Prior knowledge:
Layout: H1 2-21, H2 49-54, E1 60-70, E2 75-80, E3 83-89, E4 104-113, E5 118-127
Protein name: YgiW/YdeI family stress tolerance OB fold protein
Keywords: Signal
Pfam families: BOF
Amino acid sequence: MNKTVIALVLSAASFGVLANNHAGGFVSNEGSVGPKGGFVATAQAVTTVVQAKELPDDAWVSLEGHIVKQIGKELYEFKDSTGSIAVDIDDRRWRGQVVTPETKVRLDGEIDKEWASLEVDVKRVTIINK
């Protein structure tokens, strides 16, 4: 009986160690990974709002500027030096960060074009300065 209990405890401990070894993801020299891991490529060129508005649906963008106001439950107005665009940021994408209109951010996401609307579906919010 004791040998069975010891074997179960050792198995559970080994499983926990193995699970933790696979929690991360690839990290390039310039990037970092969030708490759940994932791929982070080398620094992507910043896309301006004007450029983003000309891109096709599902194109990946990286915007740098300011979120100036909330216009819906998870919909915000984002501005850079070239203009403004609507950005959809799910609550989980904030990762506990607090952002004000004065906070410069980098938003990584994809263009979401519908018949009469255009917005960026944000996958990651990064504060550039506080």
